[in-house]
Every structure is written in structure tokens, then in C-alpha cells.
UniProtKB/TrEMBL annotation, chain A:
One of its GO terms (molecular function) is mRNA binding. GO terms for cellular component: Lsm1-7-Pat1 complex; P-body; ribonucleoprotein complex. Interacts with SLBP; interaction with SLBP occurs when histone mRNA is being rapidly degraded during the S phase. LSm subunits form a heteromer with a donut shape. It is found in: Cytoplasm; Cytoplasm, P-body. It comes from Myotis myotis. Residues 5-80 form the Sm domain. This is U6 snRNA-associated Sm-like protein LSm1. The lineage of its organism: Eukaryota, Metazoa, Chordata, Craniata, Vertebrata.
Length: 133, 121
């Protein structure tokens, strides 16, 4: 039963567990409940998963309505593959701490880069999008 | 449990430029992509993530559905490990790498010609 044969439709993905990658870099995992032509999504029992290195942490979020323009990728999770990942799950506080440390090192490296460029008389063009994925 | 926000009869799902009818390709580039369904492609996204897989389907927004995916570059993106099929929004695609021997040059040239003619009008 295909409503528009030959098109990339999300209709068969409804009620399945999905991983959604957003433009701001966040990863959401939840059951896809509703879609529309703009790829706006309704996710149920959503969990925000934060990855740092080989560790990850889950924050339960409930029901999410995601505007389509912010979606990068939507993937159906294979429940068998999910159980044998090499990644290690840690507590929320730990993963948030790791993330904070990672952001700090990134900022410091950016600062060094900008300084090095300034020393050579070059300037970094400002990014005109808020995309961080 | 199906909670569809809006329901339209099959075939008349609204789109940005008016309702479309199933079975019709609406732009020459869409026709070209449809000729590649079933082939192995590598899709590179604007965030440098490269995904290697089989092209399952394409729609008028050039959103891409892929099956049997594998991330070609080193696993800087560990979250994709447990995903085998995915849907990629057309707006985040940088480019699509095609197998050279699968490309129908005649079709491609016709498509390019039609597009320029369309744009001129």
C-alpha cells in the first residue's frame, strides 16, 4: 500500500523506533507517530542521546514535535544492532560533564586558530548559519 | 497507532506548488534520480557525513530514502551504527556520488538540456 509509488515516503516508518539527527547536532531517538509533506515529525517516548567519544547518555524527553527544516537524517533503528554497539552507556551527569569538557577544548582550539590566523593577517569569515551538525 | 495531523486522499497530498498526482515525475532531475533507484550511491551531507548505500526512492523535493547503509568515513558518527535504512532530507545533501558505469549519458544529457530550456522559459 503505497500512497505515492516511487517517492521517498515516510509512511511505512510510522510507529517504528527512529533516530533523528537535527541541524543543531542533537540526536533524538523515539517512535515516529506522525509525518507531513515538510518532514515535520511527531516523536513519542523520545530520548535525547548525547555522544562523547565512546560513551553516551540518554535524557528522557517525552513527546517531541520537530519542524521539518531542522531534520538532517532520520534512520530506522534496528533493534538487534542496537543491543550490540561498542558504545558504553553512562549516567546523565557524567555525559553532560564530558560534553562540557569537549565543548571547552573545542572553544580553546578555535581561539588558538583564530589567533594564529590573526597573526598572519587573515580573518575567519563568520559562519552565516546556526548549523552545528 | 496512527495520529496523522492532516489527512488527504491518497494521491492528493498537498505540496508547495499545488497537489501532485502519483506516478508523474515533475522535474527532469527527478527523472534522472529515479533511473538510479536500486543502485549503490554515496551521499555526502553538508556536515561532511558520508553514507554509502542503495538508493531506495526519491521524491520531488529530492529527499532520499536509502536502504542497507554504511558510513564510509571513520566512525566519527557512532550513533548511526544501529541504523540500516534512513531518510535524508533533500536540503542537507551536498552531493550524491554515482557509479560511473550506471549513469545513462543520453538520459543525463537530455535532462540537462530540458532543465536549461525550462529555466529559460
Amino acid at each position: 500500500m503505497n500512497y505515492m509509488p516511487g517517492t521517498a515516503s515516510l509512511i511505512e516508518d510510522i510507529d517504528k523506533k527512529h533516530l533523528v539527527l537535527l541541524r543543531d547536532g542533537r540526536t533524538l531517538i523515539g517512535f515516529l507517530r506522525s509525518i507531513d509533506q515538510f518532514a515535520n515529525l511527531v516523536l513519542h517516548q523520545t530520548v535525547e542521546r548525547i555522544h562523547v567519544g565512546k560513551k553516551y547518555g540518554d535524557i528522557p524527553r517525552g513527546i517531541f514535535v520537530v519542524r521539518g527544516e531542522n531534520v538532517v537524517l532520520l534512520g530506522e533503528i534496528d533493534l538487534e544492532k542496537e543491543s550490540d554497539t561498542p558504545l558504553q552507556q553512562v549516567s546523565i551527569e557524567e555525559i553532560l560533564e564530558e560534553q562540557r569538557v569537549e565543548q571547552q577544548t573545542k572553544l580553546e582550539n578555535e581561539k588558538l586558530k583564530v589567533q594564529a590566523l590573526k597573526d598572519r593577517g587573515l580573518s575567519v569569515p563568520r559562519a552565516d548559519t546556526l548549523d552545528e551538525y | 497507532m496512527l495520529w496523522l495531523a492532516l489527512w488527504f486522499p491518497p494521491g492528493l497530498w498537498p505540496t508547495a506548488s499545488g497537489p501532485r498526482f502519483p506516478g508523474l515525475a515533475h522535474s527532469p532531475s527527478l527523472l534522472f534520480f529515479k533511473s538510479l533507484v536500486g543502485k549503490d550511491v554515496v551521499v555526502e551531507l553538508k556536515n561532511d557525513l558520508s553514507v554509502c548505500e542503495i538508493l531506495h526512492s526519491v521524491d520531488q523535493y529530492l529527499n532520499i530514502k536509502l536502504t542497507d547503509i554504511s558510513v564510509t568515513d571513520p566512525e566519527k558518527y557512532p550513533h548511526i551504527l544501529s541504523v540500516k535504512n534512513c531518510f535524508i532530507r533533500g536540503s542537507v545533501v551536498h552531493y550524491v556520488q554515482l557509479p560511473a558505469h550506471e549513469v545513462d549519458m543520453q538520459l543525463l544529457q537530455n535532462v540537462a538540456r530540458k532543465e536549461t530550456l525550462q529555466q529559460k522559459q
